[in-house]
């Protein structure tokens, strides 16, 4: 069903009362939008969800006390994976948004967003697409890099940890010790990444890790 004809329930988590009030007021002027639960931090939002709230979309602030957007997003992904999340931020922070993208956030909007852009963002995400305007152009909105990001997002946590270590100047034997696994397991991680990303050497792993360092971490 096209989002323009479907009523969307939108929840909001932001620690600033005035920001929540302003965005709620904006939401109330958009047709087919129903305002869902509001929260001052991630824990309050998760409590609403645990109590049975079922929003279609959550507008999630990145920087909040008690539980920030990153930790909240991890819990949403585990317990409420069907809910779509759009990051809400007062400033453009590529690294923070890349981390959230890795966690499954479907879009980003500024807290100073206008009505028409907010409507467009909500409808875009509700229709199963992503909304990252004017940001991450060199990473997410480049088709080839987008494909790499999708593959990266599908990796298991241990594979990401291995990739981080593989980008450092340490031998595979030491990586195995740091990860507390056998050398054979390390070989499996390496071969899996070689296959998934069409890489044929450790240099390729290093280049991959450097390209997406904000997501996987590392030195």
TrEMBL record:
Example of a GO biological process term = regulation of DNA-templated transcription
Which residues carry the post-translational modification 4-aspartylphosphate, per the record? 61
Response regulatory domain location:
9-126
For this UniProt record, the keywords arranged alphabetically read as follows: DNA-binding, Phosphoprotein
Q: Does the keyword DNA-binding apply?
A: yes
- Which InterPro entries does its entry note? CheY-like_superfamily, EvgA-like, NreC/VraR/RcsB-like_REC, Sig_transdc_resp-reg_C-effctor, Sig_transdc_resp-reg_receiver, Tscrpt_reg_LuxR_C
Q: Which Pfam families match?
A: GerE, Response_reg
Record SMART domains: HTH_LUXR, REC
Highest taxon above the source species: Bacteria
Q: Name one GO molecular function term.
A: DNA binding
Q: Identify this protein by name.
A: LuxR family two component transcriptional regulator
Q: From which source organism is this entry?
A: Pseudobacter ginsenosidimutans
């Amino acid at each position: 069903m096209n989002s323009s004809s479907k009523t969307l329930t939108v929840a909001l988590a932001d620690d600033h009362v005035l920001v929540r009030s302003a965005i709620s007021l904006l939401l109330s002027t958009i047709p087919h939008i129903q305002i869902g639960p509001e929260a001052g931090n991630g824990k309050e939002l998760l409590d609403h969800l645990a109590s049975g709230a079922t929003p279609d979309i959550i507008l999630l602030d990145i920087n909040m006390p008690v539980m920030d957007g990153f930790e909240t997003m991890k819990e949403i992904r585990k317990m409420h994976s069907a809910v779509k999340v759009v990051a809400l931020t007062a400033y453009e922070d590529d690294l923070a948004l890349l981390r959230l993208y890795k966690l499954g956030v479907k879009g980003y909007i500024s807290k100073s967003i206008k009505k028409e852009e907010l409507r467009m963002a909500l409808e875009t995400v509700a229709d199963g697409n992503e909304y990252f305007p004017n940001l991450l152009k060199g990473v997410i909105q480049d088709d080839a890099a987008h494909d790499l990001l999708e593959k990266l997002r599908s990796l298991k946590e241990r594979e990401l940890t291995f990739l981080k270590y593989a980008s450092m100047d340490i031998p595979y034997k030491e990586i195995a010790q740091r990860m507390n696994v056998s050398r054979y397991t390390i070989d499996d991680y390496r071969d899996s990444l070689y296959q998934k990303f069409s890489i044929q050497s450790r240099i390729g792993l290093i280049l991959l890790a450097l390209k997406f360092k904000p997501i996987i971490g590392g030195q």
